[in-house]
Inverse folding.
């Protein structure tokens, strides 16, 4: 009785989310402390203290009718302006409130962006490995996902393959920076190369190709590497941001889209995003959370906690003989599966109460993603389990 | 550069929302007190005081990582269970947490429900006049909206026309109770008749037809009329609820879907709703608002404030010679346009700084919708402007 599209999706329901549920079940069975659940990107670092203080101040001070009420679909103007000014200060951009559309997290933002631009059969290019939900988001609007081949071990885009896959049907390209699942950062030079290929192709094909940068992990950077601000490198850019990780508010569903003035059809595109926000049923980003963000633009999460995890896990796994991509950002470690079949490896690891996500969920094979946004203690204790796993594979 | 579907939508962008923006512009020009904006269903009654108190207590008492974190896509189990128990107490139902899916308001809920059940070209029946967004929601999933003829002045469903429009393609029927825009309530007898037709047709066609009841106005009832709880009358029911109006939290985007155990493919359907919540980009209903709802299940908005408005406006307009449907619920008054072209009438009213929504937005002609969720004083002062309007039309 459910739709045909959903039938398949329900059956193959997100491996990540299924693991989340499985993790909860295992924890009930073996005790939480004996399960090493690295499956979900749910921040373990609490929101900065000022977040809750700010919430209390807002409900005390603001007019309740306005605070909890409807506003323009794109969000409160004062919030959008404050975000624009904060971006301008950080990145030397020149945004106003017109360039910002408040969204229900980055996931909501990407859906709003894709709804605004995709016609059926339009193509959207992603670089493998990529966040598996992109496939569903594109499919929501009957678009077609086109994958660029993975390029291990650096995972720098395969520019040649990328260029060959751009067609007259290409409407958008999605990158995720810092990257989920690899933990790498798209450097300035990479972005410049992508932009140059896109500009060339746009001219050649006489089309408009939007480069969508999904940036929920922008603030989670552990190396002295700049995460380039896309609008400075390419005109037809849409940036999707979320406070899920930067302020540890994933459940609150608050983020925004940025469209620069230089983007083709700027007025139409941003108007479409407002309409898409409405008709997809978001209506607007949660109002209290919008006001909260305005007060917390300079707040930061405890990046050192993640960094400590990152180093411990990366060094620990390397020492055990596992082959790992060194994470530069986000809170994921991308590890080579010691056997070709990453799903099988994940199954075996589960025998040791270790939960990881097979890279098949991200469009590549032979890797697993380890989300290290867990207690440091969990990482420490997991290493003896990983040691057993290494032994099992004769590493 | 935007999608073809969106091009049309942006051009004809929701008359209601356009008016909201227009109202703000007029208020800037003439002063807020001189503009009578009856266009948007944005509650003017503030949320109960306990709402803000509860928010403060929650952020003080709950673990921040859990409070602001991800949970199952369907929502926190404790919240869902509390809602189920509250419904059981009120309506004699027998729901558990499994029957409840938390959503980003009723708009989010309806999209989740439709995404879960619609295949392209599937038909969804609505009764004119209907909330205009239903058309967009159905179109999001390539479904086809089928309208049952309006039946003024009672707006009881035209059962004969309804039955004639049910086909093998009919996947769902949406009703809105209490009704936006008419303000009428679907009585028990009406629901029984609809259910009986649906049961007959399901058997005849060997199909499954979901009756979706959109109920954001359930608590806003001014007459001694029961708003029947749909699951008691028909098995394949999906109830969409929102706290936007009942607790004056429209900007916070919090509501839920109810599916009874008896619904066809119950397990599959509720699983699909969880997946739809995720892939449409909602991911989950805002987490703090979920916890808030659990604490405020017995709170009520100030229904008397709306009732006072309702009586003043209804009596006032009738006395001026306007023909009105007596509102029984919600906060809308449906008024006959003194000229056939309701859009023209709305334009003329604007000359008197009165903003109303033409019923063309709701799939019928010759009426306007007046949202009386405004200050009582606004209603009082608007009547002299309505008097001028009545004079203009020689009423």
């Amino acid at each position: 009785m459910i739709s045909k599209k959903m039938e398949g999706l329900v059956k193959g329901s997100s491996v990540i989310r299924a693991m989340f549920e499985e993790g909860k079940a295992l924890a009930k069975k073996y005790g939480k402390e004996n399960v090493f659940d690295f499956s979900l990107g749910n921040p373990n670092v609490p929101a900065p203290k000022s977040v809750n203080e700010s919430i209390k101040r807002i409900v005390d001070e603001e007019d309740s009718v306005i605070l909890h009420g409807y506003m323009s679909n794109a969000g409160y103007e004062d919030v959008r302006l404050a975000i624009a000014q904060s971006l301008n200060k950080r990145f030397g951009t020149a945004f106003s409130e017109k360039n910002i559309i408040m969204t229900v997290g980055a996931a909501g933002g990407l859906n709003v962006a894709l709804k605004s631009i995709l016609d059926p059969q339009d193509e959207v290019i992603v670089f493998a490995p990529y966040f598996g939900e992109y496939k569903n988001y594109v499919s929501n609007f009957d678009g077609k996902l086109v994958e660029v081949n993975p390029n291990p071990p650096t995972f720098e885009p395969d520019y040649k393959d990328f260029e060959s896959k751009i067609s007259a049907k290409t409407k958008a390209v999605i990158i995720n920076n810092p990257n989920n699942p690899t933990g790498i950062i798209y450097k300035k030079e990479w972005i410049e190369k992508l932009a140059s290929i896109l500009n060339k192709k746009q001219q050649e094909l006489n089309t408009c190709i939007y480069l969508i940068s999904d940036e929920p992990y922008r603030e989670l950077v552990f190396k002295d590497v700049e995460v380039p601000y896309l609008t400075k490198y390419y005109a037809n850019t849409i940036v999707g941001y979320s406070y899920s990780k930067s302020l540890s508010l994933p459940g609150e569903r608050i983020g925004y889209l940025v469209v620069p003035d230089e983007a083709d059809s700027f007025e139409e595109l941003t108007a479409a995003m407002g309409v898409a926000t409405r008709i997809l049923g978001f209506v607007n980003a949660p109002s209290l959370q919008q006001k909260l963000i305005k007060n917390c633009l300079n707040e930061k999460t405890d990046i050192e906690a993640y960094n400590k995890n990152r180093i411990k896990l990366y060094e620990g796994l390397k020492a055990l003989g596992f082959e790992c991509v060194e994470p530069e950002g986000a809170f994921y470690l991308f590890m080579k599966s010691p056997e070709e079949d990453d799903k099988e490896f994940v199954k075996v690891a589960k025998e040791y109460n270790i939960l990881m996500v097979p890279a098949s969920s991200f469009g590549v094979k032979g890797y697993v993603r380890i989300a290290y946004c867990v207690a440091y203690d969990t990482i420490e204790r997991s290493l003896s389990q990983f040691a057993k796993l290494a032994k099992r594979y004769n590493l």
About this structure: Chain B has a mean pLDDT of 95. The longest strand of chain B covers residues 170-176. DSSP finds 15 helices and 13 strands in chain B.
